[in-house]
Amino acid sequence: MIRLRPTKEKIKSFCNQQSYDRGVRYLSQGRVEKLNIKGESVKAKVRGSQLYEVRLELDEPDFDAICTCPYDWGGYCKHIVATLLKLSEKDSEEFETSAEKRAAKVDETLRQATAKELRSFLRREFKRNSKAERRFLLWLDESSEENQLENYKRELRELLDSATGDDYRGEINKAIYSFFDMARDYREGDDFMEAATIYRAVAEVIAEGTEPIDNFSGYHGDEFGQAINEFAESVVGAGLDFSEKKEYIDYLFERYNKKDPDYFEDYYVEALKTICVGERDYRHWKNLMRPLLEDRVDSKLQGGTRENYETIQLVKPWIHILKNLEEENELEELYEKVSHANSDLCLDYAKWLSDKDREGTAIEILEGYLQQSEGSNRTDLRELLVELYEGRNPKKHVANLIKLYKDKPNKEYYRELKSAAPDEKWGWVRKWLEDKLYGYDLIDFYLLEGDDQNAFEEVMKSENLRIMQNYIEDLGQHDPEKYFDVYAELISSFLAEDTGRRHYREAISHLRELNKLDLSDRLQELVERLKRENDNRPAFLDEISSFRVL
Predict the structure, then answer these.
(1) For residues 54 and 79, is the Cβ–Cβ distance under 8 A?
(2) ω into residue 317 within 30 of 0, thus cis?
(3) Are strands 32-38 and 41-47 parallel, antiparallel or unpaired?
(4) Angstrom distance (rounded) from CA 393 to CA 418
(5) Do 278 and 301 contact (CB within 8 A), yes or no?
(6) Environment class of residue 478 by beta-carbon count within 10 Å: exposed (0-12), middle (13-18) or buried (19+)?
(7) Considering only CA atoms, which of 394, 364, 367 is closest in space to residue 382?
(8) HEC secondary structure over 281-320
(9) Residue 57, beta-bridge partner list
(10) DSSP three-state, residue 327
């Protein structure tokens, strides 16, 4: 049983209001999955944009929590909050998983089994499963961790080298993921360091570029990212103190610094973010990073040079380190030197200022960057600016909503703009957007306005088959006869442009769309006309023979 159960008041003290509210919503949506409790340790999977892993240690008054999501602002993230809220509502005994029950049963069975029974079972299984035999021999090898790493790498290389045939790529993936499965088994059995060794072996084999990997020209970047991050997570899961963990931080940093390889640099940074949990971890990482940044940010960066790009790539993890060490003076000084040179850093700085209740300065930073980068489409900067102006400056709030909708038209932004803009100003807003929008975006704007006539006219003017197909359900009944005439002429012209069954099938797919206009007699006439006009194309006649007018 957990002795220090989290209360809602305690949870609120560890996060900002936004994270708390979103955590409440995640809990209500049932996004907290696979909640496991072992003593005072809790693990959970929380479904966000992907499945994130949350780990909690509840044996101290101030709970220790980490999450694999990229959240990098004040307090705990929404995934941690949702997990804590779930714990606050339930009794830990409810969370004993089937895996734990199965593990207990296995332990009891092993205690009762004789040596003869175990040997007989293993011999039989090894005959059926050569991979299990290799894993057993590796496990019994009492060599050093370094030698064990080489054993795993050698085994993976052998599997990669043996991949042949039509499903060559599938065989490569199968080999890599068999190692992921093996590592996961060790993690589930709480042998985190063995799992870490396996994940490291996978990452190094991919990074070293064995021939089958090279032949896929970077197809396995995602697998590398998964391997190196799972390596870091496994080291964290082992519960090492700083003196034990230091060599693994050094390992990741060395690979990052050597750019081994350089196109995996970001993966190493993310792994370092995962493995660094406590203050000593971050201080060590900072000491490793410091020589790389020396003399690079003594003054404001001037954008646009390759050297500045490299500096910005170094600054991003440095900012992460300073945040976690709460070295705010150094952090702000750095932001002031670099935020104007990179949109991600500008957004990062503005969010940081906003969290410090310095919204006015955040607005200045965002406005300055957008003004100097006029023409760039950074909706994330504009979104934050809209949020900051809301309730502070209604006129600028609406002005930025207009630009946001123009840059990224969607229903959500339209409704927000429609709600915020004064009724007497809407005519001007509409006219401005009509001048800026075109194609799908303008048609969708008219539909949101309930202006089917203008939307219909834009579709007719487009002379585009895809647009006709896209809007037939929304606008076909506005004037079905005219819609039919225009669409039919476009289909006829398209059909005449090329030959081949694929081309004919695409033309016929548009004919099927015309069934939605309920003009069966006219459609039948069109089909017969197309047959006559293309009677020298046997493949077309064959394809259209299965078409039915509804």
Answers:
(1) yes
(2) no
(3) antiparallel
(4) 17
(5) no
(6) middle
(7) 367
(8) HHHHHHHHHHHHHCCCCCCCCCCCCHHHHHHHHHHHHHHH
(9) 41, 64
(10) coil
Give Cα 78 to chain centroid, integer Å.
16
C-alpha torsion sign, points 236, 239, 242, 246: negative
**Which among 321, 335, 225, 219 is positioned nearest to 277, based on CA atoms?**
321
Amino acid at position 391, single letter = G
Both tokens of 264, joined, read 């995996």
* pLDDT given at position 309: 83
Three-class SS state of 36? strand
Q: Is the distance from CB of 67 to CB of 86 less than 8 angstroms? A: no
> Which residue in 70, 67, 64, 72 sits closest to 14, CA to CA?
64
Distances (CA, A) of 291 to 191, 286, 540: 36, 9, 69
343 CB contacts (<8 Å, ≥6 apart)? 369, 373, 376, 378, 380, 381
Residues in contact with 174: Cβ distance below 8 Å, sequence separation at least 6, in sequence order: none
Largest CA distance in the chain: 89
Q: What is the pLDDT tens value at each position of the chain, 550 positions in all?
A: 445 567 888 888 888 888 898 899 889 888 888 788 776 788 899 987 778 899 888 766 667 888 888 787 778 889 999 999 988 876 545 544 444 566 778 888 888 888 888 888 888 887 777 667 766 766 665 555 668 898 899 889 888 888 777 777 788 888 899 999 999 988 888 899 999 999 999 999 998 875 555 544 456 888 999 999 999 999 999 999 999 999 999 999 999 998 867 778 899 999 999 999 999 999 999 999 999 988 787 777 765 556 688 889 899 999 999 999 999 999 999 999 999 888 999 999 999 999 999 999 999 999 999 988 775 668 999 999 999 999 999 999 999 999 999 999 999 999 999 999 999 999 999 999 999 999 999 999 999 999 999 999 999 999 999 999 999 999 999 999 999 999 999 999 999 999 999 999 999 999 999 999 999 999 999 999 999 999 999 999 999 999 999 9
Helix (H, G, I), strand (E, B) or coil at 32: strand
Q: Which of 509, 518, 451 is closest to 483 using CA atoms?
A: 518
Q: How many CA atoms lie within 13 A of 115 on its CB side?
A: 0
**Structure tokens belonging to residue 459:** 């579709």
Distance CA 530, CA 489 (A): 11
The rounded distance, in Å, linking the Cα atoms of 262 and 268 is 10
547-to-23, 471, 522, 527, 535 alpha-carbon distances in Å: 52, 22, 15, 9, 16
Q: How many CB atoms lie within 10 A of CB 155?
A: 22
Q: Supply angle C-alpha 130, 133, 138, rounded to 5.
A: 130
User: Phi then psi for 498, rounded to 5 degrees?
Assistant: -155, 175
E strands in 155-210: none
CB contact at 8 A, 345 and 317:
no
Q: Which of 496, 494, 499 is nearest to 513 (CA)?
A: 494
Place of tokens 């954008």: 303
